[in-house]
Amino acid sequence: MIDGKKVLFSGMQATGTLTLGNYLGALKNWVALSNEYECFYSVVDLHSITVRQDAGELRRRARNLLTLYIAAGLDPEKNCLYYQSHVPAHAELAWILNCFTYMGELNRMTQFKDKASKHANNINAGLYTYPVLMAADILLYQADAVPVGKDQLQHLEITRDIAQRFNSVYGDVFTVPEPFIGKTGAKIMSLQEPEKKMSKSDDNPNASIFLMDDPDTIIRKFKKAVTDMEASVRYDAVKQPGICNLMDIYGSCTGKSTAEIEREFDGKGYGEFKLAVGEAVVSVLKPVQERFDELIRDKSYIDTMIRKNAEKAGYYANKTLRKAQKKVGFPERVRE
Ligand code: ATP
Ligand code: LTN
């Protein structure tokens, strides 16, 4: 608890251009939850270097991502928006937690298996212990809730196991966090292969909608989206995975339920439906894009918020870090 409010932590990597999946599955929920909780939202740049990055490009993307957090509606006065690399406690706690995590647990992580097969020439130890760093992120702030898309549930589960293991040895050091999955948009699928999740790192640009795509591009990509054989807008995950995905996107952008969408497009063709989905997405993304364009020019505003929020994050993170260090037996620092 901070000032009587429950704590919420989440983070994103600046390893590509954000997709509609990141927005509907994560960022949109972050904004919705930001009044109710004391929120920490990080740009997790330590995680990003588990795959090779161009340094200048990573720096540029990380700044864009922090700016996008604000553009999407997160007030940096109320929410702590910061770079993970500005708070060394993340790496320090991760080391301690590494010593409370079993290789057997890490071997089961599906994201590791996916990324290892994609980057077969660079299966580094950081990629392997990625979930431990993620556990450190969350536990440092004593987070009660962690809003993520479904793909991150396994990492939340291991975070809870590590916290419980540490607590069972040393008493109540860490809050055991709960995942928070939004009702809609939890897993937005690729527009070209609806059995795969929409991903920043997909090689086919038509598979993903990027947050900065202009309206014409968005409409064009939806027109090209893979649909099914049934020729009706009906929610049937087995027969119509493509249409279900488009219905999820439409529902998430308009707030309409599946039944309402089926009624709205009863007797209408895929073409009309796809256009409506495209238009709904354009109207959700346009205000975010406009605000981003304004903010990115205001260098001193962004710099000030980066400095202030890194201090705030550091304050809370260090409190927990000191507690954990003391428990495992590191000596107190002698002050003059
Ligand atoms: P990559 O595709 O490069 O592995 P990513 O798109 O999964 O990256 P992350 O930074 O790992 O991006 O994820 C940021 C947040 O967005 C996480 O909470 C994740 O669960 C969520 N998310 C990512 N893709 C989707 C998706 N297709 N649908 C819903 N949520 C998603
Ligand atoms: N692993 C996450 C990003 C991430 C995260 C976190 C999410 C790093 N640390 C802490 C929630 C809480 C991802 O790949 N989406």
Topology:
Blueprint: E1 7-12, H1 20-33, E2 38-43, H2 45-48, H3 55-71, E3 80-83, H4 89-98, H5 103-107, H6 110-118, H7 125-128, H8 130-140, E4 145-147, H9 153-170, E5 178-180, H10 215-224, H11 241-254, H12 258-264, H13 270-296, H14 299-328
Parallel strand pairs: 1-2, 2-3, 4-5
Helix pairs in contact: 3-13, 4-8, 4-14, 8-9, 10-13, 11-13
The chain binds adenosine-5'-triphosphate (ATP) and L-tryptophanamide (LTN).
The site of L-tryptophanamide has 14 residues, from strand 1 and helix 8.
Structure description:
This protein is mainly alpha-helical and 336 residues long. The protein has 2 domains: 7-180 and 299-328, 3-Layer(aba) Sandwich (Rossmann fold); 184-297, Tyrosyl-Transfer RNA Synthetase, CATH 1.10.240. The protein has helices at residues 20-33, 45-48, 55-71, 89-98, 103-107, 110-118, 125-128, 130-140, 153-170, 215-224, 241-254, 258-264, 270-296, 299-328; strands at 7-12, 38-43, 80-83, 145-147, 178-180. The protein has a 3-stranded parallel sheet with strand order 1-2-3. Helix 1 links the parallel strand 1 (7-12) and strand 2 (38-43). The relative contact order is 0.14. It binds adenosine-5'-triphosphate and L-tryptophanamide. L-tryptophanamide is lined by residues 9-13, 44, 47, 134, 137-138, 146, 148, 152, 155.
